[in-house]
Design a protein that fits this description.
Length: 254
């Protein structure tokens, strides 16, 4: 039994792994658009795309009647959460006609604009500071039905902004304007921002990202416990950068 499998089993004993859920009919195959990461490096490998593919099928599109707002957070910094969030948003936008918005809530170190090659000018912090303007005026359209709400102005006031009452109102406004909202948050073992973003019904829950053969078991268990203690649902997990100890074709036949 691989170390990766053992980690996922212990980490998500009571959670649906990778967001997989049973359905009465087999899901339609999803598209895998080529992801443009600008200066951040080459496209994902196929295994990482498939993790995001399962997430889109099992969490976002499992019930077509639901709109979804979901926070993405890594267990540890460097686990690849932002790339997973970006790829999931791209696959989702390519497989639905609904409006999709990806939000950069990593206010201390925003990176989403760099992934898409756009400016961080005007974003979430600006929307919080300008209550009279609609939140959609601070978004940037990236593709036919994909928008980005960048972090916007950063600084010492960024963390307190996540605990403001206006944050909940702005996230609700986003949910009214977009069918799917994906929020990229800092790592759970570094800051409590992901919990602040998801609590009080601001989001439906959290997707946790782990890095294969890197994320520490004790840190992962502690991170999930903190989420559940805040009464936030862990909707699933993505095991990023998993490798195959045997050739991938043989692995799939086991």
């Amino acid at each position: 039994m691989s170390k990766n499998f053992e980690l996922m089993q212990e980490f998500l004993k009571e959670t649906e792994v990778d967001g997989e859920r049973s359905t009465s009919a087999p899901p339609k195959p999803l598209l895998f658009p080529g992801i443009s990461l600008g200066a951040k490096g080459p496209a994902f490998n196929r295994a990482a795309q498939e993790e995001c593919h399962k997430l889109v099928q099992g969490v976002f599109l499992a019930d077509s009647s639901l709109s979804r707002a979901i926070v993405f957070a890594a267990v540890e910094r460097g686990d690849g959460c932002t790339r997973i969030c970006v790829e999931t948003a791209r696959i989702l936008a390519s497989n639905t006609e609904s409006r999709v918005c990806i939000v950069d809530a990593n206010l201390r170190n925003p990176s989403l604009p760099g992934f898409f090659g756009v400016s961080n000018h005007r974003g979430l912090l600006d929307a919080l500071a300008n209550e009279g303007s609609r939140v959609s005026t601070f978004t940037t359209q990236l593709e036919a039905n994909l928008w980005l709400l960048s972090a916007g102005g950063t600084g010492p006031g960024a963390p307190p902004a996540l605990n403001s009452e206006l944050l909940g109102a702005r996230l609700k406004e986003l949910r009214d304007e977009f069918r799917y909202v994906l929020v990229d948050a800092p790592a759970l073992n570094v800051h409590m921002d992901a919990i602040a973003l998801a609590r009080n019904g601001n989001a439906d829950g959290i997707i946790v990202v782990l890095q294969a053969d890197s994320t520490r078991r004790e840190t992962a268990i502690k991170a999930v416990a903190s989420v559940r203690q805040a009464k936030i649902e862990v909707l699933g997990a993505v095991l990023n950068r998993r490798s195959f100890p045997i050739p991938e074709l043989l692995y799939r036949r086991l």
